[in-house]
Design goal:
Strand content: under 5%
Transmembrane segments: 20-39, 71-93, 105-134, 154-171
Order of helices and strands: HHHHH
Structural class: mainly alpha
Number of helices: 5
Distance between the termini: 30 Å
Keywords: Membrane, Transmembrane, Transmembrane helix
Number of domains: 1
Shape: elongated
């Protein structure tokens, strides 16, 4: 008779595949960190040009360049988010124990990050308008407002990427331990 699939550790899990998924999740976490912090850095650098364009002024070369960089980084961020979400689900389905928990953490952190971003955005708009950093009539934000928003979003990115990284670490380290046992 034919032999079935070869399982590695006797528990029905292909730990080599789970380890590879964990490694890709760790790499994806690093790319997300760079992309998200790059977006916020571009916004921070271009704050003066963005504020000038809100009030009808001309946008300078720094503003155009940082806007183009932001668009590219947002695209990369979206693509890597989809990949991390899918691999997190795959790790949760394929793994056992901490690897499963890590996959769930990585997968759930992606939509939670998006929801928290929008909540944070609404809170920041309310604070900026209440403090006078944003004009209630026109919605124009000053350069300081752009910098405050970029700093807050950078903090959000750091926290969420740390959570995703923890999940990715759980997946990779659990698979490594199972393979070495």
């Amino acid at each position: 008779m034919g032999a079935g699939p070869q399982l590695d550790a006797g528990d029905g899990v292909k730990w080599k595949r789970v380890k590879l998924i964990g490694l890709i999740l760790l790499i994806g976490t690093a790319v997300l960190l760079l992309a998200r912090l790059g977006i916020n850095l571009a916004s921070f650098i271009a704050a003066d040009d963005l504020a000038a364009s809100d009030t009808g002024g001309e946008i300078g070369a720094v503003g155009i360049g940082s806007s183009l960089a932001s668009v590219l980084l947002y695209g990369l961020n979206f693509l890597v988010n989809i990949i991390v979400f899918g691999l997190g689900i795959a790790a949760a389905v394929m793994g056992r124990g901490r690897a499963r928990v890590g996959g769930i953490i990585a997968a759930v952190a992606i939509p939670v990050s998006a929801v928290l971003f929008w909540i944070l955005l609404f809170v920041m708009v309310a604070i900026l308008m209440a403090t006078g950093v944003a004009d209630e009539q026109t919605g124009a934000i000053t350069a300081a407002g752009y910098r405050i928003t970029a700093g807050t979003n950078a903090l959000h990115a750091l926290v969420m990427v740390a959570i995703i990284g923890l999940g990715a670490f759980f997946v990779h380290s659990t698979a490594s331990k199972k393979l070495s046992a």
